[in-house]
């Protein structure tokens, strides 16, 4: 059955599919961190819909609230009109926002994907400042639409959209394992921030004054690369001083994933524009911006669209935000993540291909390298993409779904739901250890 399903769909769908090829599972049922495939096997899900399902699959409270909505006859879609669901979601979200945004932000529902919210954030920054340029970081991932691709790091993404869809200046992200400055953390953070400051201070740098700087606090698709707190605070200070807006993309890091409700809270930094999607919709498509009210420079209709806040997504999102906050699942993510990385570091002791184990909360990456390869000019070992792909397949064989990202797709990425149990965490580690042995032998 599985083979039939996969072959039929192979003919029907575009060649751009990824997960369907790397994880040939065809899920039919799921609960919590477990997914049952069409082959009847149960898999532990360390993807959770690319980080979307903070409460795991089919959380009973989310399901009950969705069923109640459906039974009540509420309009499933109401454009950008007000519904009780939107009212309740907005109230919940505003109460959870970081710093000065809490309680007092403007919300812009865009939709329905993370990339739409990034697009809206770039346009808002340009409209509010009357400037066009955007400063972005190497290794960044902000989505696949034109503007979001333009501010993303990988050259492959940008070459497809043309370099000039948005005027972008790129600065090295502080990546201590493969430090672009040849230093390592925290110096790489200082050098990255200094570079931004000198570009903004020195008129001969030729970039002109940009509208905004956009960044991820922890780069997810870029390979789980974490910007130091001191770097983030410096970027905030410099942008504020130069009257440049700071856009923080918390599409992947938001809603408890990194051990804080928002990743920017660890450094005590609040952006001018916060970009949210994934977990904020509790597993249904929803994307929203929060920004300071004085930036609300749009006129009615300036940035609109059909799908701007789906009723059911707002309900699933509200329950998710509330449950993560009330049950302190952000803290739990911090504790589980530390245990996960401890276990992975123990595997790494026996496994020279595990170059670095890193991450924050339940956003974990293992940078896989070729330990026998030559060091590059910055002193880094070569990436090990073939080993990484073999390890991902071996993990799937063991009943564990995870993904790759980062440089040459050689960073093993784990994004389990925040409700992962202790026993499931142990099983994740056991399965990785077994998979590693099977790839080695
Ligand atoms: N920003 C970040 C940080 C992301 O991780 C992603 C998706 N992985 C996006 C934006 C784009 O979101 P979407 O895939 O929903 O368009």
Q: Which descriptors would you attach to this protein?
A:
Aspartate Aminotransferase, domain 2, 2 domains, 441 residues, 4-stranded mixed beta sheet, single chain, 7-stranded mixed beta sheet
Molecular structure report:
This protein has helices at residues 2-12, 19-22, 48-51, 60-72, 84-96, 114-129, 146-150, 155-161, 187-201, 229-241, 311-326, 329-349, 385-397, 422-440; strands spanning 27-31, 34-37, 42-45, 106-110, 134-137, 168-171, 212-215, 218-219, 225-226, 245-249, 273-276, 287-291, 354-360, 363-368, 400-401, 403-405, 411-414. With 441 residues, it is α/β, with parallel strands linked by helices. The strands form four sheets. The chain has a seven-stranded mixed beta sheet with strand order 4-12-11-10-7-5-6, with helices on both faces. Strands 1-2-3-15 form a four-stranded mixed beta sheet. Strand 2 (34-37) and strand 3 form a beta hairpin. Helix 4 (60-72) packs antiparallel against helix 11 (311-326), helix 9 packs parallel to helix 10 and helix 12 (329-349) packs parallel to helix 14 (422-440). The chain starts with a helix and ends with a helix. It binds 4'-deoxy-4'-aminopyridoxal-5'-phosphate. The site of 4'-deoxy-4'-aminopyridoxal-5'-phosphate (PMP) has 15 residues, from helix 6. 4'-deoxy-4'-aminopyridoxal-5'-phosphate (PMP) binds at residues 50, 113-115, 118, 141-143, 216, 220-221, 249, 251-252, 277.
Taken as a percent bin, the fraction of beta residues is 15-25%
Report Rg: 21 Å
Shape: globular
| CATH topological fold name of the largest domain | Aspartate Aminotransferase, domain 2
CATH architecture of the largest domain: 3-Layer(aba) Sandwich
Cofactor: pyridoxal 5'-phosphate
EC number: 2.6.1.76
Pathway: Amine and polyamine biosynthesis; ectoine biosynthesis; L-ectoine from L-aspartate 4-semialdehyde: step 1/3
Keywords: Aminotransferase, Pyridoxal phosphate, Transferase
């Amino acid at each position: 059955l599985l083979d039939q399903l996969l072959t039929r769909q192979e003919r029907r769908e575009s060649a751009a599919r990824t997960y369907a090829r790397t994880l040939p599972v065809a899920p039919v049922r799921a609960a919590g961190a477990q997914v049952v495939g069409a082959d009847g096997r149960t898999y532990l899900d360390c993807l959770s819909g690319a980080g979307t399902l903070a409460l795991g699959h089919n959380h009973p409270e989310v399901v009950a609230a969705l069923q109640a909505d459906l039974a009540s006859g509420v309009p499933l879609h109401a454009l950008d009109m007000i519904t009780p669901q939107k009212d309740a979601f907005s109230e919940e979200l505003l109460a959870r926002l970081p710093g000065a945004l809490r309680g007092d932000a403007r919300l812009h529902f865009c939709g329905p994907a993370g990339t739409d919210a990034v697009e809206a954030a770039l346009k808002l920054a340009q409209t509010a400042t009357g400037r066009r340029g955007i400063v972005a970081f190497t290794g960044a991932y902000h989505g696949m639409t034109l503007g979001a691709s333009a501010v993303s790091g990988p050259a492959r993404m940008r070459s497809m959209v043309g370099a000039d869809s948005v005027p972008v200046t790129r600065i090295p992200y502080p990546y201590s394992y493969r430090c672009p400055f040849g230093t390592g953390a925290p110096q790489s953070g200082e050098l990255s921030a200094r570079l931004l400051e000198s570009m903004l201070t020195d008129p001969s740098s030729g970039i002109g004054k940009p509208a905004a700087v956009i960044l991820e606090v922890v780069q997810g698709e870029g390979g789980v690369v974490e910007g130091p707190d001191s770097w983030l605070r410096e970027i905030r200070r410099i942008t504020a001083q130069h009257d440049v807006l700071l856009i923080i993309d918390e599409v992947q890091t938001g809603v408890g994933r990194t051990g804080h409700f928002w990743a920017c809270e660890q450094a005590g930094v609040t952006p001018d524009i916060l970009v949210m999607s994934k977990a904020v919709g509790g597993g249904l498509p929803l994307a929203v911006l929060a920004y300071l009210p004085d930036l609300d420079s749009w006129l009615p209709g300036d940035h609109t669209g059909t799908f701007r806040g789906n009723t059911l997504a707002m309900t699933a999102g509200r329950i998710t935000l509330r449950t993560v906050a009330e049950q302190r699942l952000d803290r739990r993510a911090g504790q589980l993540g530390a245990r996960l990385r401890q276990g992975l570091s123990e595997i790494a002791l026996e496994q020279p291909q595990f170059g670095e184990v890193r991450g924050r909360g339940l956003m974990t990456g293992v940078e896989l390298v070729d330990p026998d390869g030559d060091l590059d000019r910055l002193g880094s070992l070569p990436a090990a993409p073939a080993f990484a792909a073999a390890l991902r397949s071996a993990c799937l064989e063991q009943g564990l779904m995870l993904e790759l990202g980062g440089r040459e797709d050689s960073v093993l990425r784990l994004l389990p739901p925040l409700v992962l149990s202790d026993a499931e965490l142990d099983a994740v580690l056991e399965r990785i250890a077994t998979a590693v042995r099977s790839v080695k032998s």
